[in-house]
Each structure stands twice: as C-alpha cells, then as structure tokens.
Amino acid sequence: MANDQNFIDDWEQSDNDRVLWIEFIQEKEEYAFEILYKKYYEPLSRFAWRYVKSKAIAEEIVQETYTDIWISGDSWEINGSIRSYFYRIVRNKCLNHLKHQQIKEKYDTVWYEENYLHETDYVDERRLKQIRIAIENAIKELPERSRMTYMLHRHDGLTYDEIAGVMGVSVKTVESQMSRTLKNLRKRLSYLLI
Q1: 5 touches 38 (CB < 8 A)
Q2: What are phi and psi of 168, to 5 degrees?
Q3: Model confidence over 66-78: pLDDT tens digits?
C-alpha cells in the first residue's frame, strides 16, 4: 500500500497528464483515473462553485465530468493541456447547468419558490482580519471576466495560455485583462500600505 502511494505521488509530481489521459481513456486503467481524479477534483470543484454557488452541485458537475470522460472520452479530441481541457469541460457543464436553472425558474414556480425560500447563505463564521476582508471584497467587486481570469491564474495556477483556452479568448486578451485587473486591485488596496 505504501508503494502504491509512493507511485501515485511520483505521478502527481511529474507532469505526465497526457500519458495518464491515454491510459485513463484508451486503456481504461483505474490507477490513471485515480491519479487524474485526485489531482484535479478539488480545484475543478472550486472552479465550478464560482459558477453555480453550491458545493454539492459543483462536486456533482465534476463527478459527472469524470464519468462522461470514462464512458466516452476516447471519442474526444484534445488540443492543448489536459488541465485546461478539464476546466473547459467543467465550465461548459456549469454554463449548461445555469441555463437549465433559468429555464426551471421561469417555468416551474413551485421549484423557484421552494429554492429561494430555503436558500442557504454560505457565511464564514470566523472573523477575518481587515486586510483579508479588503482583498476579498476588492476581488469580488471586479467585473466577472476579470475576476474569473484572476482566480484561474492566482488560485488555480493556470497559465495565460490555459486560461485563454478555458475562457475562449486569445492569450493577449488574458494578458491585457490580468494587467488591468492587477492595476485595479493595487489602486483599490493602496490605502492598506499606509
């Protein structure tokens, strides 16, 4: 068992996602599935939550993504990194989920009332320090695309190239957006440096 864990750790440390993908998809190797699952499940769930604002739904979307890939992934063509491919799939599933929710809300008033009457707010009960609150608020106040670009780069560690693939824009657009976003954050948070 310890050797198995060492083997998994070695794979996680090396960036051999494409090899794992081939073994996961074409050869249906469970260890490859397990490694890719452990490596991306949490970051993808956080990414999905940013869209759907529900931990359970975000996790369900990520699990559904892995299931779909396991079942029919060998018919999918991958251009670019495996990581950005996973993010693109999850993003599309989130957008589809949100569209479906809009349709449900529009046509099913009973569902709408039940969900919004029992909506739960996710409140962090720990008291955060002033600087952390200020930074989080500044990030929240960013325009949606700027915020998403910032979070993908700073929190999820995606490269500009990968972000461009996930967002469906050019790398130059990502660079420009990050530059404007960082300038905006520096300006908003400059009072903290005094």
Answers
A1: no
A2: 70, 35
A3: 888 877 766 667 7
Whether residue 94 sits in one domain with residue 40:
yes
User: Whole-prediction pTM value?
Assistant: 0.55
For residues 84 and 87, what is the distance between their CA atoms, to the nearest angstrom? 5
First to last CA, the chain: 54
Residue finishing a domain among 96, 122, 148:
122
Are residue 24 and residue 92 in the same domain, yes or no?
Answer: yes
pLDDT band at 101 (very low <50, low <70, confident <90, very high): confident
DSSP 107-151: H-HHHHHHHHHS-------SPPPHHHHHHHHHHHTS-HHHHHHHH
